[in-house]
Design a protein that fits this description.
By secondary structure, the chain is α+β, with helices and mostly antiparallel strands. It is built from 2 helices and 6 strands; from the N terminus they run ββββαββα. The radius of gyration is 12 Å and the shape is globular. The N and C termini lie close together (10 Å).
């Protein structure tokens, strides 16, 4: 399982995004990060928007509760999700 840091209002964890996939899906764990395949290309923030949308659906939270706090132009991102705890992340997949 991936390392998950708890904050005062939620959790922080790493995500590895694979853009231009045939479908959006959870693809396991890679290098201490949750690996996600998304269909959007990495152009003008489209991949980041789709990553946030996918995570919100997977975790059952609103898109406003999810923020990319590092790695906006990288496949490796650090994501903050408010309103959930470590167990919610451990139970996905």
């Amino acid at each position: 399982m991936i390392p998950v840091g708890e904050t005062a209002d939620g959790v922080v964890f790493n995500v590895r995004v694979i853009p231009r996939a045939s479908r959006c899906e959870l693809a396991g764990v890679q290098d201490d990060a949750l690996k996600i395949r998304i269909t959007a290309p990495p152009v003008e923030g489209a991949a980041n928007k789709e990553c946030i949308k996918f995570l919100s659906e997977m975790l059952g939270v609103t898109k406003a509760q999810i923020k990319i706090i590092a790695g906006h132009k990288s496949r490796n991102k650090k994501v903050s999700v408010s309103g959930i705890n470590r167990r919610d992340i451990e139970n996905i997949g």
